[in-house]
Amino acid sequence: MSGSVPRPVRRRTFVLGSAAAAGSAALAGPLATTASAASFGYTDDGSNYVIDTGANLVFKVSKTNGDLTSLVYRGTEYQGYGGKNSHVESGLGTSTVTIAQSGSTILVSVSYGTLRHYYAARSGENNVYLWTNKADASVSATRYIVRVKAGLFLNDEPDSYTYAPTTIESADVFAKSDGQTRSKHYSKLRVSDYAYIGWTTGSVGLWIVRSNHEKASGGPFYRSLLRHQSADGGGLYEILYYGENQTEAQRFGLQGPYVIAFTDGGAPSSSLYPGTLTTSWADSLGISGYVAASGRGKVAGVGISGRDTSRAYTVGLANSAAQYWASARATDGYYSIAGVLPGTYTLTVFKGELAVYTTSVTVTAGATTTLNTIAIPSSNDPGNASAIWRIGTWDGTPSGFKNADLMTYAHPSDIRAASWTGNVVIGSGSETSAFPAYIWKDVNSGLLVYFKLTAAQAAAAHTLRIGVTTAYANGRPQVTVNSWVSSIPSPPTQPSTRSLTVGSYRGNNHTFTYSVPASAWLTDTSQYNVLKIDVVSGSGTTSYLSAGTSIDAIDLLA
What is the pLDDT of residue 232? Predict the structure, then answer.
């Protein structure tokens, strides 16, 4: 099977043990310290705590460092490749590890400096529930890696680098002999696009079901590595904070639960999905930073007016402590965001990935904050402006431009990419599809747009706009119209790490505006005016790591 996220296989069911009903029962009291005599329980083998879920899953947690050292499902060991365990980051090191059981729940607690990590098992379930509480920056990043033995799952999708022997960038982007590229960065997916990732053989599925990412950073459209597979095994990731192409500061606090789930080959149960999973059974476990459902609130909006009904809209909540989002209903813009920590948030309405409205909202524990219809001012959406011509759609993405879709799972040098040159003629009907999604100083700077103006249009000054979604090495567009040359604009704030070559166009959307005087236009209306777009910057290196930018839309206003 491929390494891409499969669609739910409805003819298969999520495997539960005979004690599944106990999985929904809330704990009645504090955790006990002894194992039960039933098959569900734990033992101590001297080096590890051995937890039997009473279903088909037995896993081990190191008493020394909190690593997951064994993951046996239906008698087969899945854990481990290259001699490595599954763990937070690349392993925490010497930690304090304790275990306790109460009724149908077993909790393993791992303490490493200011970081706390937890594993929980429920009687009769083939799941491992995980939480990670990162209190500060003493651990450089926050991720959990499930390391899976080689040969158990096949993977030849674009996010795999198993069959890619030639390094073409850094130590993490590779090329196959046929010219296709591979990297663990190439996931195709934004956070809001998936509930789980993993592999299936058709008879066994191994998945990570992601958390709600409330303490992660980057918002609903952030992209990061999700999995990889190499010659000696594969890895599944839950990324809680990732510094690559990051647009936000790191958030601290408890993140989870996220779930390692085994199935009979189908998708994990939808009851485990973020926004659906309920964990009242964890309320009394004493997990550091845990906030029960009763300590959270909800935001609901009756609708959004002023939308472009051909586009999807997302509503996000964010402050320095947490982030949440939900899709707005296509018919009227209704939205609902539950499970929100109390506090004051910036509410942002996104058209596609472009912010078109913001306001402030306060959330109270145990209550619903109801908002009246949000009216998006026409001027907030650049797509509403009357234009002489327009290339692309103002939606905060390079969607529709040449190579845009491929760039979320391939390197720009990939054999499947069309030529990065792309001069276009307005009125040809292929303006957007022929124009490259990305422009680099050392690759395709100097792209040309040909267009004609009427006598009335040529007699007036006009505003030219270029919207970008991100930039690398301060790359930004300088334009020339016929013989008129614009000044060099200041670079907007953008992530400082790689972006365009590691599968992400997501940065801080920015619009460059150029006031083009009437004297710049050709007076002969039968001739084409020529717009030249160059990328300028004093930073970057060469080729696809030279200064570059991703295009959202380009237009000349009436």
Answer: 80
